[in-house]
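PROTEIN DESIGN WORKSHEET
SECTION A - STRUCTURE
LENGTH: 254
C-ALPHA CELLS:
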C-alpha cells in the first residue's frame, strides 16, 4: 500500500515493508519533469526488499509545479519547457540545491513519524540522483547513495544541452553545493555508487568519474564505498541492471 502525507507542505508518498522488519529508510527521487508517482514501482521493490521506501516531489515538480513563479514552468499547464529552452538551466541548479536542502527535514519527519533508523539511503534517476549526491554532502545521516544516470558536476561538460548564465543567487547555490567543488562535505564517507550510461549524451559519466577520483584519498580506508558502474552502449536511460545495482547498494550499506 502507498501512503501519502504532506511534510511542511512537501507532498510525500511511501511504501511500508512487512511486519517485524527493521525499519530502514530509502528515499528515491524521480528524474527531471517527473513526479513522485513515477517511481511507485521502485518504491514497491524497495519495500519488498525490506525498506521503508519514500519519495517526494522535488522543487517545481509534481504537485509543486503549479505553485512555481519561475519561468521554466508553463503557467497554464504546469509543464516544463523543452530541455533545449535556454531558460531551463538558469533554474536547474536551484532545483538541485533547494531539494537537497529539504532532505534533512524529510529524514527528521520519517525518524519521528515512521520510526525509521537514523542512517538512511537516498538515490534517484538523473536529476533525482544529482539531488541525492548533493544531499549526502549536507546530511551525514545519508549513509548510502545510488545515483542512476546522474553526475556530481553540475556543469556537465560535454552534454548536448548547454547551460545558460545563472543569476548571482543561482551561481551562489552552485558554489555552495556543487559536489565536485565541495569535496570537504563528504569527509564522513557515505557509500556512493554512480550507475551510469557509457554513451550518455545528456549526463556524461565523466562527472561521476572525476568526483570519485577526487575523493579517493578521503576514502583510503574504505575504497569499496565509492564506485562508478558503466553500462556499455547505453544512452540516457534507466536500465534494469542499474536498478538491481541500486538495490544491492542499499542492502549492502544500510
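SECTION B - SEQUENCE
RESIDUE ASSIGNMENT:
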Amino acid at each position: 500500500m502507498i501512503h501519502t502525507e504532506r511534510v511542511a507542505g512537501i507532498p510525500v508518498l511511501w511504501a511500508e515493508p512487512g511486519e517485524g522488519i527493521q525499519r530502514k529508510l530509502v528515499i528515491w527521487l524521480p528524474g527531471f519533469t517527473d513526479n513522485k508517482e513515477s517511481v511507485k514501482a521502485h518504491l514497491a521493490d524497495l519495500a519488498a526488499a525490506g525498506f521503508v521506501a519514500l519519495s517526494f516531489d522535488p522543487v517545481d515538480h509534481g504537485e509543486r509545479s503549479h505553485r512555481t513563479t519561475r519561468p521554466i514552468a508553463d503557467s497554464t499547464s504546469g509543464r516544463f519547457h523543452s530541455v533545449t529552452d535556454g531558460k531551463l538551466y538558469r533554474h536547474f541548479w536551484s532545483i538541485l540545491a533547494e531539494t537537497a536542502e529539504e532532505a534533512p527535514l524529510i529524514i527528521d519527519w520519517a525518524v519521528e513519524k515512521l520510526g525509521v533508523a537514523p542512517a538512511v539511503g537516498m538515490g534517484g534517476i538523473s536529476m533525482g540522483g544529482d539531488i541525492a549526491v548533493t544531499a549526502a554532502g549536507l546530511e551525514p545521516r545519508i549513509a548510502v547513495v545510488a545515483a542512476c544516470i546522474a553526475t556530481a558536476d553540475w556543469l556537465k561538460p560535454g552534454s548536448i544541452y548547454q547551460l545558460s548564465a545563472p543569476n548571482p543567487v543561482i551561481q551562489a547555490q552552485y558554489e555552495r553545493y556543487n559536489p565536485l567543488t565541495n569535496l570537504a562535505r563528504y569527509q564522513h564517507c557515505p557509500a556512493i555508487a554512480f550507475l551510469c550510461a557509457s554513451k550518455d549524451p545528456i549526463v556524461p559519466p565523466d562527472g561521476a568519474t572525476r568526483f570519485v577520483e577526487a575523493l579517493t584519498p578521503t576514502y583510503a580506508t574504505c575504497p569499496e564505498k565509492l564506485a562508478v558502474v558503466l553500462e556499455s552502449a547505453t544512452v540516457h536511460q534507466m536500465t534494469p541492471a542499474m536498478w538491481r545495482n541500486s538495490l544491492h547498494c542499499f542492502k549492502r550499506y544500510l
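SECTION C - NOTES
The helical segments are 40-48, 88-113, 127-138, 168-177, 206-215, 240-253.
Residues 88-113 form the longest helix (26 residues).
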